[in-house]
Amino acid sequence: MADNHAFDIVSEINSAEMHNAVVQAQHEIAVRYDFKGTRASIEYNKKDNNLTLLADHKGQLDTVIQVLKEKMAKRGVAVNALKRGKLEEATHDSVREILTLHTGIETDDAKKLVKQIKQIGIKVQAQIMDSKVRVTGKKIDELQSVIAYLKENGPEYPLQYVNFT
C-alpha cells in the first residue's frame, strides 16, 4: 500500500464529443423551420479550440447558442467550458460571435486553487504542474474532501479529477 495518495486537477474537454455535438447542432440548424433561408451556422476550429457562430440577428444567434449547448449537454461536454466572445457585425447585416473552449488551468487560477486547498485546513499538499494542479495526501478520505470542496467552490469552468492513486 502506498504512503501517499494523489490526484491531478485538470480542465479539459473531450474533443471528439465536442465535434459530435457541433455536428448535431449544425444538422438541427440545417433542418429547423425557423432557420430556413437564414445565415445561421456554426464552425468548429479544433486547432484554435474555438467556435464561430453566424446568424442574421442577435436573437437568432442566442437560439443557435442554445441549440449548441443542448447538444453539448446531451454528449456529456461541460456547457460551462464555453467562453462567449463579443458580438461583431458581419457582412450582409448578419452578426458573428466567436466562442472559445476553456482548456487547461492558467497559472493565476492554479495559484487560487492551491490557496483555496490550503484554506480548507486538510492535511494535503497542492502543487502546480504545467496546466494542472497535483494534490497529494496520506488519506484517500482527505483527497475526496478536497474534491467535494472544489466541486462546490471551484471556478466557473469545469474541472476534472484524474490519475487518482
From TrEMBL:
Keyword terms, alphabetized: Nucleotide-binding
Keyword Nucleotide-binding in record: yes
Gene Ontology CC terms: cytosol
Keyword field contains Electron transport: no
Pfam families given in the database record: YajQ (PF04461)
GO molecular function, one term: nucleotide binding
PANTHER family assigned: UPF0234 PROTEIN YAJQ
Family designation: Belongs to the YajQ family.
Function statement: Nucleotide-binding protein.
Name the UniProt record assigns to this protein: Nucleotide-binding protein Sinac_0974
Organism: Singulisphaera acidiphila (strain ATCC BAA-1392 / DSM 18658 / VKM B-2454 / MOB10)
